[in-house]
Write a structure and sequence with these properties.
alpha/beta; transmembrane helix; LytR/CpsA/Psr_C; LytR C-terminal domain-containing protein; transmembrane; membrane
Length: about 230
């Protein structure tokens, strides 16, 4: 006889392998929450933004300005090394200054004993003053001094002509005259009375082109110019 009954799960007798509960068992995962589904996209966006920010910081140099903790520690270490070097240099400078002070003290002590640093005796102040030459009076050109120009050349008006040369450079008291007797020099000469007139006499000689300048006693004016020959 044909088997007409439809066999079902319950048609068979149970055995050791029929532990699963009765009814269908789901094979699909349940529906995930919105946060779980969106999280991968958020992570990708954040990573991309951080990568772009890092690339911009490297390209623009702004990344070097970030106060990284390890950079601060390196700077502090370098500053400490520099401070130690400065302290060592200062100590060396103090030692050098101390040596220099000691040498100066020794030199001062040697001078107090009447000797220099080489052991040579130093003259006292009185001896040094005696050895120095006497100071010479200050020499200045006096354009107001009286100057007499004597013409012994035989050329009429030569003394007046040379007097005008002196007046043109600023001399205010120049007299042109002829010889009045007495000895005449052998060359053109500028005579002066006192040592204080030397600078003025030399200036007059340079102005008139006369090579000889001599001090003379008994002349009528502080400075006398005598022409023997026209120049």
């Amino acid at each position: 006889m044909a088997h007409t009954e439809k066999e079902t799960y319950g048609s068979y007798s149970t055995d050791a392998f029929d532990n699963p509960p009765s009814g269908p068992v789901g094979v699909h995962r349940g529906r995930r929450s919105l946060a779980v589904r969106v999280a991968p996209f958020v992570v990708v966006i954040v990573v991309a933004a951080l990568a772009g920010l890092l690339a911009w910081g490297i390209a623009s140099g702004e990344l070097n300005k970030v106060p990284w903790p390890w950079a601060q520690q390196s700077a502090q270490t370098a500053q400490g090394d520099q401070n130690r070097q400065d302290d060592a240099a200062a100590d060396d400078g103090d030692d050098t200054q101390a040596d220099a002070d000691a040498q100066d003290d020794a030199a001062d002590q040697g001078e107090a004993d009447g000797q220099d640093t080489d052991g040579a005796a130093q003259p006292d102040d009185a001896t040094a003053d005696e050895q120095q030459p006497e100071s010479q009076p200050e020499q200045t050109v006096n354009y107001n001094t009286s100057v007499r120009v004597i013409n012994a050349t035989g050329v009429n008006g030569y003394a007046a002509q040379q007097s005008g040369v002196l007046q043109s450079v600023g001399y205010t008291s120049v007299i042109a005259a002829n010889p009045s007797g007495g000895a005449l020099p052998s060359v053109n000469v500028v005579w002066y009375q006192n040592e204080t007139d030397l600078a003025t006499a030399q200036n007059i000689a340079d102005t008139l082109g006369i090579a000889t300048v001599e001090q003379a006693a008994g002349i009528a004016d502080p400075i006398v110019v005598v022409y023997i020959a026209a120049q």
